Amino acid sequence: KSFIAQNPFLNKNPKPRIVFDSRISLHRGEWTNAHDIASKIKDHLDPDIFEVDVVDDVAALSVAEQAALYHGASIVVAPQGSSLANVVFMKPHSIILEISCGEKSWVRDWASDLKIRHSSVRSEGPSCNFEGHRTFFVRPAALVDLILDICWKGTKKKTN
């Protein structure tokens, strides 16, 4: 089989795909409420129109799988860190939402050069003050509203 046929991370359908990179399995720099936020997003979006995935350990994927994951995403939501180097595989006009503690972002510069939209989302809590081992937590309402605003531009809201 070809790489494309074998690769589960390559988005083979035309649906916009939202990827949450939680880094939860790394035990350093993990995003503690990524699954909760992804679940809330799924509750608001029509699964016939949008695909929502959470990947807990992008670093465990092969380089080809990481490339396919980021290339196939319309929106990537991830904490700051080295896995965001995969932004180089994203398509122009896709969106990266970087969760950070407020530091200057190198990802913003790369995204700009690649014509990818970038927004920083501020992590909350005392973990941003601790050097070495950080955990990221984002107030769900703020991030859910931001993502839904992006998704609903040009489409209809899910009706229950």
What's the gist of this structure?
The protein has helices at 3-6, 34-44, 63-71, 106-113, 140-152, and strands spanning 17-21, 30-31, 51-55, 75-79, 95-100, 117-122, 135-136. The protein has 160 residues and is an alpha/beta fold.
Report the major sheet: 5 strands, parallel
Tally of individual helices: 5
Point out poorly predicted stretches: 1-6
Strand content: 15-25%
Shape: globular
What Rg do the Cα atoms give? 15 Å
How do the helices and strands follow one another from N- to C-terminus? HEEHEHEEHEEH
What's the total number of strands? Answer: 7
Q: Can you list the strand order of the major beta sheet?
A: 3-1-4-5-6
Query: N- to C-terminal separation?
Result: 40 Å
Helix fraction by DSSP (H/I, runs of at least 4): 25-40%
Mean pLDDT: 78
Instruction: Give the structural class.
Output: alpha/beta
Topology:
Blueprint: H1 3-6, E1 17-21, E2 30-31, H2 34-44, E3 51-55, H3 63-71, E4 75-79, E5 95-100, H4 106-113, E6 117-122, E7 135-136, H5 140-152
Parallel strand pairs: 1-3, 1-4, 2-7, 4-5, 5-6
Helix pairs in contact: 2-5
Can you describe what's shown?
This protein is an alpha/beta fold. It has helices spanning 3-6, 34-44, 63-71, 106-113, 140-152, and strands at residues 17-21, 30-31, 51-55, 75-79, 95-100, 117-122, 135-136. It has a five-stranded parallel sheet, sandwiched between helices. α2 (34-44) packs across α5. Residues 1-6 have low confidence and may be disordered.
